[in-house]
Amino acid sequence: MRVLEYENIPELEGKTIAFTHIAQFADNVTIATEDGCVIVITQDLDEDYGETKRTKVLPKPYAVQYIEGSKYLREELSKRGIFDIEAYKKKQRELAEKRKEEFRMAQEKKEREEYERLKAKFSDK
Predict the structure, then answer these.
(1) What is the DSSP letter of 9?
(2) Which end of the chain has fewer beta carbons closer than 10 Å to its terminal beta carbon, N or C?
(3) Are residues 92 and 75 in the same domain?
(4) How many domains are there within the chain?
(5) What pTM did the predictor assign?
């Protein structure tokens, strides 16, 4: 399960689309592939002319928030086995905890090395 961003668009090439949500008055277009990738695209409209001014891919946090906020999308993606928002959020929390632990261990190692360096420097006196 992955939420794709703008730089990941080339990864969509050759993938099979398993689900789309393109409602007539929706703010966003959601595309999901068989392998669990989801991309959310939004368009800004020029209200004076009714034309599209800008099309952009939502960043991960906004895309997840959009999916989370839409009961229909959550249920459809989960029902089809494409993307489970709860499992995705759990995985992201686990990855964040892992990164935090790795940072803590690296910090401890750095502090230990600094302690040993200072200990050697000042123990001679």
Answers:
(1) G
(2) C
(3) no
(4) 2
(5) 0.71
